[in-house]
Structures are given as structure tokens and as C-alpha cells.
Amino acid sequence: MIGPLVGVLFDGFAYGMLLFLLSVGLSVTLGMMNFVNLAHCSFAMLGGYVTVSLMNDLGWPFFATLPLAFLAAAAVSVVLERVLYRRLYRASDLDQCLLTIGIVFVSVASAAYIYGTVQQPVQMPDYLQGSFVVMGVNIAVYRLFLVGAALAITLILVAGLEYTRFGAQVRAAVDNQRMARGLGINVGGVFAVTFALGSGLAGLGGSLAIAIVGLDPSFAFTYLIYVLIVVSTGGLGSIGGSFVAAALLGISDVAGKYYVPQLGSFLIYLVMLGMLMWRPAGLFGKR
Amino acid sequence: MQKLLIGLGSLAAALLAASPVHAQGAIKIGLIMPYSGQFADTATQMDNAIKLYVSQHGDSVAGRKIEFIRKDTGGIAPDIAKRLAQELVVRDKVDLLAGFVLTPNALAASDVSAEAKKFMVIMNAATAIITTKSPYSARTSLTIPQLNETLGAWAYKSGVRKAYTMVSDFGPGHDGENGFQKGFKDAGGQVVGSVRFPVANPDFSAFVQRAKDLNPEAIYVWVPGGVQPAAIGKTLAERGIDPAKTRIFGQGELTEESALKSMGDAGLGIITVYHYDYNHASAMNAAFVKAYNGAYSRNPDIYSIGGWDGMHLIYEALKKTGGKTDGDSLIAAAKGMKWESPRGPVSIDPETRDIIQTVYIRRVEKVGGQPRNVEFDKVENVKDPFKARMKK
């Protein structure tokens, strides 16, 4: 009895971490910068394609592709931010939605044009495959790796935003732009870097996720809903909130599928609904 | 209103047909497929085969030029498919309808085919009942019961007595589940449990763990092609389900080319049922695969073969009618048509207008270092068992 329960908890937590890795970048761009960035998963998809191309076409090892996925997504996002996003920082939510959903369509069409509509083969290195058994619980190696990666990213982000000079500048620029500018902070520059950070994280999350969820041009739309759920239930602007929300959603989703499969993946929406009714601003939301 | 439109359309078509100029004109084929969206790749593969067929066999039949009008449904959208079919018939005055990757779209367009008396060739959509919706439709792909009942019966014959089934929770998944369970139970097997998971399911760990905990002799899986086969295949391997001990059965989507590439060694030993694979050993298939690769730099799949044979049926039927394109002549010409396809011998059942073909049982094995679907058993001349039962 205990074996399956612990197994479900682990799988659920690992699935939650997968969701977290995909959405942590959005909790930076949407959460902190307050920009409704529906194109988040387009950057994740870009990261995924970078990883797939480097691994399959150039034979790079998986780990070497991860920084490149981060950098590529960040670089593309800086261009978009300077050219397009920047103009809409003060526009209404609807305008931001329209722009970013347009970018999603463009990204889907571009991916289909360059890579074709076919599902990309993603083959992880041997040492990340398979599973081992600890006290009757089946632990999949890749899922364990995802959990580790998510924990590391959370620590780095939280520490970076709380304890570094740049983190303080970001928080100042987000909370009170005029004051920050008055203190000599280059708000435009800070925003550009923050946005690049968020998108880079999306790219990294994408390349970590594709081993489990696969990659084709519809990726940018398919996972949009999940990352929005995680960020909104976690509370805007809270990395820790996203982490907790992702873990809760992941565990309830997997537990639901294991114990009440008839309910299927509907449970994740019920949990979201419950959490938002209880705390409309999200678990750790401030506004 | 709809009937009126179609009425007007047929009237206009009748008037046009009466004029001698039109008789010499092009034959218009309306293709309705999901060229964009989640199923875009299936449409791409089918369209590739259609283009290849035309480039090899010429763009005119019985002295008349063939023209295509392509319409995009964007995915599962029966209302759009129906509207497009109406527009094609009424406004573009197509002579016949073809394509149809998805069941709901094919069902919706069948109404138009029936009312406007237009020949309709279903090149993929695989739910059994589709061809009963229009007396002018024929199918060149497969039916899900045709494959899966055969697999169920074969599974029992191969020694499996207790099986667990896990399928996607939508029409084709249910058909696969019913088909396998029917074939398996009728042979004497026992289904120890089953689960249906959502169609858009990113993570299979919970479902696979549940199946594993029941410890069945075999697990039957039905998922649609695309992202999911590799995802579930990897999860099966990751949970330590060894195909050598617990047999894994499925319809061929589970081990399609791109899925096998992603699964790597995890896919070895999975047994699937299908009606076509690009590795099928025949001279005709070798030539087909070579030409296909030459034109599109990839291998054909079942959607390609459905499109290829669909075009063959259209060309041969037109030759038989001498270029006459009314629904009655074309369907009469199509009934009972027999030909050799790259997949093997096929024919159109004169009673149900559905395809009769050889069904192959394949196992994933390493060939030259690469995982491949290797055919090791087959059942010849399989008719759709579902419609055979409907008749009784």
C-alpha cells in the first residue's frame, strides 16, 4: 500500500517539477514584470528545437545543449523585447495578449516551415534513462534529474533576486519605475535583461521537458495552458509560489490519474479552481 | 437553407454537365484535410503521396485533366469540414471529394456526398461506420476493428490469456479498445482491467504504474500518432515493463518511425498490428519508398499509402467510366476494384465499399543497428468485421 503511494508522490512531484521548469520563466516575465506573455511557450519550443538540432544533427551531448538553449531563447527574446514588447509595457492586458498570441502563431508557422510538422525524435543519453528501485518504489532517473534541476534553479533564482544587487534593481524597477529611475537605475536595461532571463529559463525548461512530453510545432500552444495555470495558482511575482503550486498540481494530477482514472486530467483544473477560489491572488500572490 | 443550396448546386451542376464544353473540361477533386494544426503532419504525408501519384501517372485521366482544390479544416472540426464540402460542391463544382484524415470530419462531409451524389474517397479516417453514411463513399485506408480484432485474436493464439488495455479517451481509442477486447475475448482471453486516458495527456506515469501494479501478461495500448507514442513507450520502459515478460501490443502508430527514433532501445519487442510499413518487402514498395524519398526526403507512412491508393482508386474508376464523374457511375466502378498496392494486394468490398487487405503483425527489432518494425506474421484478406456484424 505504502509503495504505490510513495511512488505516486514521487511521480507527481517530478511531474510538478516538469511544469515548474516550463513555467518558471513566465513567473519572471508575467509574474514580476507584469507582462502578459502568452508567447512564453514559443521560447520554450525554441529551446527544445535548439537542443534537438544540436543533439541530432551535430551530435552534441545533451548537457552541452542546455546552455545554448538558454542563450538562444534569451537572445531571440532580447530582440523581440527591444523591437516589440517594449512598446507595450504600459498598454492594456488585451493589447499584450494580442501581440503575444500573434507571436505564438508566427512561431508555430516558422517551426513548421523549418522543421516540418513531424514529431522530433528526442533520445536522451543512456545514463538518464531507465529507473531504479528504492524500497519498492520505482524511481525514474530522468524524473529524478528534473527534480534536481528544478530545485537548483529555484535556489539560484530566489537567492539571485533576494541577495544580489541586480536582484534588488529588478525588484525596484518592477515595484516603482519612477522611483527606480530617479535613483539612477537603468530601468530599460534592467527590464531587457529580466525579460531575457525569463525567456532563457523558458528555453531551458523546454529543452528539459521535451524528453517526456515530445516536441512538434504545436508545443507552443499545447503547454501554454499548463504554464498559465501554474503561474496564476502560484501567485504573480512569486517564484516560490510557482514552485509550490507546480508541486501541488503535479501531485494531485498524478494521484488523480492513478486512483481515479475516470476523472483523468480534469483534476488539475478542479485543483486550480479550488485553489483560486480559496486564494484569488494565488498561493503567494501579493496583488 | 442547406438543402436549398445543395439543390441549387446540383441544378447548376446538371446544367453545366449538359453542356459539351464542360465534358471536355478538367475533373476537379476537392481535398479536405487538416493542413494546419495538430494533425498537419498526417495531411502533409497524405498530400505528398497524392502529388507523387499524379507526377508518376500524369495529370490527366480518360482524356480529362485532373485539378485539385485543397481545403484546410485546421484539425477536428466537423462543422468546418461540412461547410468546406458544401462550398466545394456548390461553388467550386468539384466532381469528387477526397482526403479526410479525421473521423468527425469525414462523417460530416459524408452527408454532403450523400445529398449531392458525389463520389467520396476516404484516405485515412478509420472509424468503421464512416462508409455507411454515404452510398457514394469508399475507403482506401483501414478500419480500426479490422486491425485490432485481428490483433486480439492473434494475441490469444500467441499464448496470452490475461490482458490489460489502455487507450486514449476518444472515438478511435474506444474503437481500438473494443476491437482488441472483442477479438481477444471471442478467442477465449480475459481482460483484467482497462483504463482510458485523456487525448491530450502529457505524462503517462500514473496510468502505466497502475497497469504494472495489476501485473497482466500483456498490455494493449492505443494512442494517436504524433507526440504520444514515444511518450508512452518511454514511460513503459522507464517503469521497468520488459516486453519480453509483459507483452506490449498496440496499433502501428505506437511504433511509427518518429516514435521509434525517440524510444530507442526502449521500443524493442513491442508487437503492433498495421496494414503498411515502409519496410514491407516487395519490389513495388521498394520503388514507392525510393520515389517518395527522392521527392520528399522522408519515408512514406500509412497516411501516404492511404493517399496513394486513394488516388489509384480515383484514377482507375475514372478510366472505367471513361471520364464520367457522376457519383453513381464512379461508385459502381470502384466497387470490387482490385489492385496491387505497395502494402500488398487490396480490393474494395463491393458490399461495404470498404477496403479488404492483408493485416501484418510486426515486432520491433534491431535491423542494422536501428529499431525497425519487422513483419513476422500476417492475416490475408481481412474485411472490416464491424460492418460484417452490422449486416446480421
SSE sequence of chain A, one letter per element: HHHHEEHHHHHHHH
Q: Would you report the number of β strands of chain A?
A: 2
**Count of helices of chain B?**
14
Radius of gyration of CA atoms of chain B, rounded to a whole number: 21 Å
Low-confidence stretches of chain A: none
Overall morphology of chain B: globular
The CATH homologous superfamily name of the largest domain in chain B equals Response regulator
- Residue windows where pLDDT falls under 50 for at least 5 positions of chain B: 18-23
Count of strand segments of chain B: 15
The percentage of residues in β strands of chain B lies in: 15-25%
Radius of gyration of chain A: 19 Å
Structural class of chain B: alpha/beta
- The ordered string of helix (H) and strand (E) elements of chain B is HHEHEEHEHEEHEHEHEHEHEHHHEEEEH
Number of domain modules of chain B: 2
| Overall helicity of chain A | over 70%
The CATH class of the largest domain in chain B turns out to be Alpha Beta
Q: So, CATH architecture of the largest domain in chain B?
A: 3-Layer(aba) Sandwich
Task: Give the oligomeric state.
Answer: heterodimer
Percentage beta strand of chain A: under 5%
Largest interface: A-B, 46 and 37 residues
Mean pLDDT of chain B: 89
